[in-house]
Specification:
By secondary structure, the chain is an alpha+beta fold. The chain has five helices and four strands. The chain has one domain. The N and C termini lie far apart (50 Å).
């Protein structure tokens, strides 16, 4: 009980920007987690945007520190999903919606790798301006099979 009270107090001390990012990322992450189990994936095609070049984000280094909004968004999405398996696509789609709301460009990439037992492992991750926001880790071991680029400013 004391642990829960401590967490509530810590959360209450956070700036409003962090609390709103937590609420937004929690709602979107769980919505996409449920929707991906109930709705056929083809329905999400419009959200992904146009297919782009098979771009590997690890070929470049970020040009500078991540903007505060992007850093906070990435932090909360990772924290919310850290105890759940197979949530990379839900994280990437939730992050895409959050970044689109802020009128920033982003790329969702899909990759595949072969495991030692011969099984295929699929993965999705979200990139903004050379920053891997969701699905980071051993990305170099995945072969990029598709990327989808979205620039809200270009659609205006």
């Amino acid at each position: 009980m004391i642990g829960i009270i401590r967490r509530i107090r810590t959360f209450a001390r956070l700036p409003w920007r962090d609390r709103l990012a937590w609420a937004e990322s929690t709602a979107l992450f769980w919505w996409f987690t449920v929707a991906l189990k109930l709705v056929p994936f083809r329905r999400f095609k419009r959200l992904l945007g146009p297919a782009g070049d098979k771009d590997s984000p690890w070929e470049r280094e970020p040009s500078g520190p991540a903007p505060d909004d992007i850093r906070i968004l990435s932090l909360w999405l990772r924290r919310i999903a850290r105890k759940h398996q197979d949530t990379c696509l839900a994280q990437a789609l939730a992050g895409r919606v959050m970044i689109r709301r802020r009128r920033l460009p982003s790329t969702v990439s899909f990759g595949v790798r072969e495991e030692a037992d011969g099984e295929l492992d699929f993965h999705a991750w979200l990139v903004h301006d050379d920053w891997v926001l969701t699905g980071g880790g051993a990305l170099r071991s995945y072969s990029v099979i598709a990327t989808f680029y979205d620039d809200p400013e270009r659609r205006r």
